[in-house]
Design a protein that fits this description.
With 604 residues, the chain is of the alpha/beta class. It has two domains: 331 residues, ABC transporter type 1, transmembrane domain (ABC transporter transmembrane region fold), CATH 1.20.1560; 126 residues, Rossmann fold (3-Layer(aba) Sandwich), CATH 3.40.50. Helices cover 63% and strands 9% of the residues. It is built from 20 helices and ten strands. Strand 9 and strand 10 form a beta hairpin. The radius of gyration is 36 Å and the shape is elongated. The two termini are 65 Å apart. It binds adenosine-5'-diphosphate. The site of adenosine-5'-diphosphate has 15 residues, from helix 12.
């Protein structure tokens, strides 16, 4: 390998190739049939049978003539013509069938491979922790799954087409060359001409090394382009409100320009291989011819050798371009492998403990947490956090933005593991539980709940897929969203747009609350919406939350002081530390920051 960067092992692809093996073999066999019928069958027919019809029996194959005479008697020519005229279309039909099978089966192999690969990458994506998603842009990940996987599929199809056929052709041609030059004493000519073959390797290597670099950049750039598109289509409001169209367009154009430049470079390196090989081969051939003629080679031998040489350059050219194709696909392979081999930073334990049933205390023990991407000169997102949240408590997290509230809440469902210290649930370190088990105990109402492209009922049911219709309606009722749903044209069967565009912020939040009611988990994490809801929605959300927190252990990231009425305990966060802990009334008296924040809010 020309580059020394750590390269993911191709073995990663093996499981996806397995279901493609049989179609590949079938494709190879039918390809061989096609090649024999066109490469050998047609010329053989021309040479052995055709002369009979034109009265040149002596040029036809004696075996064919003898067989025809035995079958049809002395007057065989007319009947043989009939057989040939009927037989030829039949051969063509068979040949066409082989060609069809060949294409069909090789594509089947390619698509099976693509299918398995995409499924594995998608599955892996769903397992990967939040941290992974913060490092990668959504559009870029989509582009890997769609475009890069497609690139690899093309390679598999091309490889199964060429990697078997071309070496066979090369071996056959070389065999003929060697045989002839030994028997006909024209070894010198062949030797010189063939010396050009190893010389061809030099430009192939040089071009494909450059190609690999371009391929990496190209795959990266395709991801960037997809990311730019995703960003734009996800934010029509911001873009149109601030008249950012021309700015976005300019950025997109810029990305396209880079992509075009890289694509053309890749095309250049991909196409440069064949002409260079042709040139070197011609030079070698001509030098061979020069010395061949000088040493008295005869014309018949020369033309036979010439054809055989020509036939062996063809596969070399093809193998050179396969090499180029492999390089092109390598960038894509690396990008997919990066997903397949991305480390799970919050892995499940090998021997997980069962989650203790019922309501359990949650303890943070000397927890310190720093985001891997966080700048080193900033304070850790959490330091010296040591608290216990008793079962059934409703704890509100308050503090300035960036103080660590969200981070604290995210450690409970184990979206991250503490850098130091530990978090326990019912006395068990969260790292000893599986994430799935743990998360069954926790309902999360996020700030900006995502809705799926499905009906309202299905959107509520996500938190408990086996819930009955009655349960869904009950949950919606308790979340104060039932009446609204009833007023929709198709009620609970109304489809929700992607990202829930047709529901208001307050309605989306209440759908999330309904999900939490349905899940009926002992622990609740509430991330309050920062943007104020309209007062009616606000009142309903507050009322629903009041009921939701009943009997559960609740951690609430509070952005508005109005919601603190729900809490019986407050944790004040400042720069990643908990600086105040107690009931609201006490803190009002004793905690200066808390009091100041409250006054500011009341003024607003
Ligand atoms: P809050 O919820 O109180 O506003 P956060 O918990 O979101 O605060 O953030 C705490 C600190 O961690 C901040 O300094 C923030 O910049 C940093 N931070 C939050 N999320 C990330 C992240 N994904 N990567 C790097 N730093 C982060």
């Amino acid at each position: 390998m020309a580059t020394r960067t750590a390269q993911p092992s191709l073995r990663l692809l093996k499981p996806f190739l397995r279901p493609a093996v049989w179609p590949m073999v079938g494709g190879f066999v039918s390809g061989l049939g096609y090649a024999l019928m066109s490469g050998v069958g047609l010329p053989a027919m021309l040479k052995t049978v055709m002369p009979v019809f034109f009265g040149r029996e002596e040029e036809a194959s004696p075996q064919v003539v003898a067989a025809a005479k035995a079958l049809f008697g002395e007057d065989y020519a007319a009947k043989l013509l009939l057989v040939a005229c009927l037989g030829m279309p039949a051969v063509m039909l068979l040949r066409g069938l082989c060609a069809l099978m060949n294409r069909y089966l090789l594509n089947l192999a390619g698509f099976r491979f693509l299918d398995g690969l995409r499924r594995a990458v998608f599955a892996r994506l769903q397992e990967l922790p939040l941290e992974f998603y913060q490092r990668h842009k959504a559009g870029d990940l989509v582009s890997r799954l769609v475009t890069d996987a497609q690139q690899l599929k093309h390679l598999v199809t091309a490889l199964s087409e060429d990697l078997i056929k071309q070496p066979l052709l090369l071996l056959a041609a070389l065999g003929f060359l060697i045989y002839t030059s030994i028997t006909e004493r024209s070894a010198l000519f062949t030797l010189i001409a063939l010396l050009s073959v190893p010389v061809c390797v030099i430009p192939i290597r040089a071009a494909t090394t450059r190609l690999l670099r371009r391929a990496r950049a190209l795959a990266y750039q395709s991801g960037e382009l997809a990311a730019a598109v995703t960003e734009t289509v996800q934010a029509p409001l911001e873009i149109q409100a601030d008249n950012l169209q021309s700015r976005q367009q300019e950025r997109f154009d810029q990305q396209l320009r880079v992509l075009l430049r890289l694509s053309m470079k890749a095309v250049k390196y991909e196409s440069i291989v064949a002409p260079i090989i042709e040139f070197i081969a011609t030079v070698g051939f001509m030098i061979g011819l020069y010395f061949g003629v000088k040493s008295g080679i005869d014309f018949a031998t020369f033309s036979a050798l010439g054809v055989a040489l020509y036939l062996s350059y063809e596969p070399i050219k093809a193998l050179g371009s396969i090499q180029a194709k492999i390089r092109s696909a390598q960038g894509s392979f690396e990008r997919l492998a990066a997903i397949l081999t991305a480390p799970d930073t919050v892995p499940d334990p090998p021997r997980p403990k069962p989650v203790p049933a019922g309501r359990q205390p949650i303890r943070f023990e000397q927890v310190r947490f720093r985001y891997p991407t966080q700048a080193l000169d900033t304070p850790a997102a959490l330091s010296d956090v040591d608290v216990e949240i008793a079962p059934g408590e409703t704890v509100a997290l308050v503090g300035p933005s960036g103080a660590g509230k969200t981070t604290f809440a995210l450690l409970v469902p184990r979206f991250y593991d503490p850098t130091e210290g530990r978090v326990t649930y019912g006395g068990i370190d969260l790292r000893e539980l599986t994430k799935a088990d743990l998360r069954r105990q926790i309902a999360i109402v996020p700030q900006n709940p995502a809705l799926f492209h499905a009906t309202i009922a299905e959107n509520i049911r996500v938190s408990r897929p086996d819930a009955s219709d009655a349960d869904v309606i009950e949950a919606a009722r308790r979340a104060y969203i039932h009446d609204f749903i009833q007023s929709l044209p198709a009620g609970y069967d109304t489809m929700v747009g992607e990202r829930g565009a047709s529901l208001s912020g307050g309605q989306r939040q209440r759908i999330a609350v309904a999900r939490a009611f349905l899940k009926n988990a002992p622990v609740l994490i509430l991330d309050e919406a920062t943007s104020a809801l309209d007062s009616e929605s606000e009142a309903m959300v507050q009322e629903a939350l009041k009921q939701l927190v009943q009997g559960r252990t609740t951690i609430m990231i509070a952005h508005r002081f109005s919601s603190l009425t729900l809490a019986n305990r407050i944790l004040v966060f400042e720069q990643g530390r908990i600086t105040g802990d107690g009931p609201p009334e006490t803190l009002r008296r004793t905690h200066a920051t808390y009091r100041r924040m409250q006054e500011l809010q009341q003024l607003a």
